[in-house]
Specification:
heterodimer, A: alpha+beta, Arc Repressor Mutant, subunit A, 3 domains, nine-stranded mixed beta sheet, three-stranded antiparallel beta sheet, 15 helices, B: alpha+beta, Histone, subunit A, two-stranded antiparallel sheet, 3 strands, 37% helix, flat
């Protein structure tokens, strides 16, 4: 029985301000060909100089993936003719990468999966081509020379679900490290899986197929799943297969041939003579390691262990670093981790979504949210009222207690005042009273509801219940 | 080291996108073989234990700081382009590889 063998190559644009080998801006969305210079255009006589921050970001990522850092790293020229590179070669790395030999541990459908990371290295991005229906192509080089990190796994994936989980974890890691926006729609993160099938007994394999044109993690998952099925089908029907690159067609949910690899690629790699080698000093590497933040998987596990949160909450809250920081600030101010988690993932998230804000731009600070949660805990307001208070805090910038006072929202816990309302409610609902006395405990709800309506939900529900029971049973 | 064959020349021509006639390829083959003779001489040296060298000067770790500078004005960028439109280089359609 054949099994799927999948490896993944990811390209992530780094978050430097300038390009890899020149000082042009590395920004997204500028006017065509406005961020280019003789170096990234490959004009004769221009010389590249390495961006130190890009090297640091790759080492940072490599360390977070458990990689070793090379002691002698070199850039190579990868030679090929294509208009996305004006100089006819891409500066990349070859057999002396910055980092290599890491690992990522995953949990897929409750099963532990270990994926070996072959390498994380540095190269430059290419320009952009636009093909017009009138038989012309447009070329622009703003993206050309933007630092690109390539992360390559060993072929350790056995299913599309494993690939998806890897990409989710990797994207979260890149966010935590602050090294890439990892935005797939903008092309800041590109994933190219290689898929084939292997018979574990005979070692026989189907030809490797590389898939391109994947604009989301879901697309990667669907494309890998499709490609595995397609190759099984070819095996069964005896349809011939060949080593090729296939393009994912999102609309039809299929892969189609893009190009075949008749001859082995010959990029004539050779050491880039215009750049000197990189020998990362051990002190520098150790300083980068020491500055690594708590990594997302570790933080997720700590949220479960330290705060007793369900696995789901811990995962959602640690999805990005800012949300996890916000959550921890709320917990620090008021305790009640599960309540904090519900508020951050629920009502606060809704307000953020509605206003298009990120959590760092939240108009309610963690301390303010903690105070609101505190007013529920001490019985000042109910949970329902608190849910109405939060949007008012958001709109006015006032604290929970200010909103409660200004709008007179505090719960009525005064027994004599509630007693009066309870008596009215009992008088107004003779049927419910009779039903309750006849053994229908649910009938009590109508009486409680009456009091709550009269007080617009501000009566302390516990006190109301207690008083009604005392009246009816007394 | 074996002689450069016509197939080798064809391969190099393909990589370099050169369209040579058979007689041109024959001429180039002779020239390449004379160049290769010099490498034959170098092969005689014992390079055991000598690390691959990409630079004559022992130098490493040359960096620039990540500070954006000034790029070329777009008029200059497309100045030598045979064809351009709205800041783009314009070419005949090329097939996406």
């Amino acid at each position: 029985m054949y099994e799927p063998i999948v490896g993944v190559e990811v390209h992530a644009q780094l978050t430097t301000s300038s390009k890899m080998f020149c000082s042009c801006r590395a920004e997204f969305g500028a006017e065509p060909n406005t961020n280019v210079c003789p170096v990234c255009l490959g004009l004769p006589g221009s010389l590249p100089v390495t961006n130190r921050k890009a090297v640091e970001q790759v080492i940072r990522t490599g360390l977070a993936l458990g990689c070793e850092v090379g002691t002698l790293c070199r850039f190579y020229r990868k030679n090929y003719f294509y208009p996305d590179l004006a100089k006819n070669y891409q500066i990349s790395q070859y057999d002396e990468p910055l980092t290599f030999g890491g690992r990522m541990e995953l949990s897929v459908e409750g099963r532990p999966v270990s994926i070996r990371i072959r390498r994380a290295h540095l190269e430059e991005d290419t320009g952009k081509n636009i093909h017009l229906p009138n038989g012309r192509s447009l070329v622009e080089y703003n993206r050309c020379g933007v630092p690109l990190m390539e992360i390559v796994t060993e072929p350790d994936f056995r299913s599309a679900a494993e690939v998806r989980e890897y990409l989710l974890q990797l994207r979260r890691l890149l966010w935590y490290l602050g090294v890439s926006t990892a935005n797939m729609e903008e092309g800041a993160l590109r994933a190219e899986p290689t898929v084939n099938l292997r018979d574990p007994e005979t070692g026989e394999r189907t030809p490797k197929v590389e898939i391109k044109n994947l604009a989301s993690i879901r697309a990667v998952h669907d494309a890998v799943e499709y490609e595995i099925r397609r190759q099984y089908h070819c095996l069964e029907t005896g349809e011939p297969m060949q080593q090729e690159t296939r393009r994912w067609n999102e609309a039809q949910g299929i892969t189609t041939v893009m190009r075949t690899k008749e001859s082995a690629e010959d990029y004539m790699y050779f050491p880039e003579p215009d750049l000197v080698p990189i020998e990362p000093e051990p002190e520098w590497v150790e300083a980068i390691r020491a500055a690594l933040p708590e990594l997302p998987q570790a933080r997720q596990q700590r949220f479960v262990a330290e705060y007793g949160l369900p696995e789901y909450d811990a995962q959602v809250l640690t999805e990005d670093r800012a949300t996890a920081d916000y959550f921890e600030a709320v917990v620090q101010a008021c305790g009640e981790p599960k309540a904090c988690s519900n508020w951050v993932m629920g009502d606060l998230q809704r307000l953020l979504n509605e206003s298009g804000c990120s959590i760092t731009e939240s108009r309610v600070s963690p301390q303010q949210l903690a105070e609101l949660i505190g007013t529920i805990k001490d019985g000042t307001i109910s949970h329902n009222i608190a849910q109405a208070v939060l949007p008012k805090m958001w709109a006015t910038g006032h604290s929970a207690r200010e909103v409660i006072a200004a709008e007179n929202l505090a719960l009525i816990s005064d027994a004599t005042e509630i007693e009066k309302l309870v008596d009215e409610a009992i008088a107004a609902n003779p049927k419910a009273v009779a039903d309750y006395r006849g053994g229908k405990e649910k009938a009590l709800g109508a009486i409680v509801g009456h009091v709550m309506r009269q007080t617009k939900g501000q009566a302390n529900a516990a006190v109301v219940n207690e008083l009604i029971l005392a009246r009816l049973n007394g | 080291m074996p002689d450069v064959t016509l197939d080798d020349v064809r391969h190099v021509c393909r990589l370099a996108r050169l369209d040579l006639s058979t007689s041109e390829m024959e001429r180039v083959r002779g020239e390449l073989n004379r160049i290769m003779a010099h490498f034959h001489e170098l092969q005689a040296l014992d390079t055991e234990g000598v690390p691959t060298t990409s630079h004559a000067i022992p130098m490493s770790n040359v960096y620039r700081e990540d500070i954006p500078g000034v790029s070329l004005p777009v008029e200059k960028v497309i100045q030598n382009a045979p064809d351009s439109v709205e800041g783009f280089f314009r070419t005949s359609l090329f097939v996406e590889e």
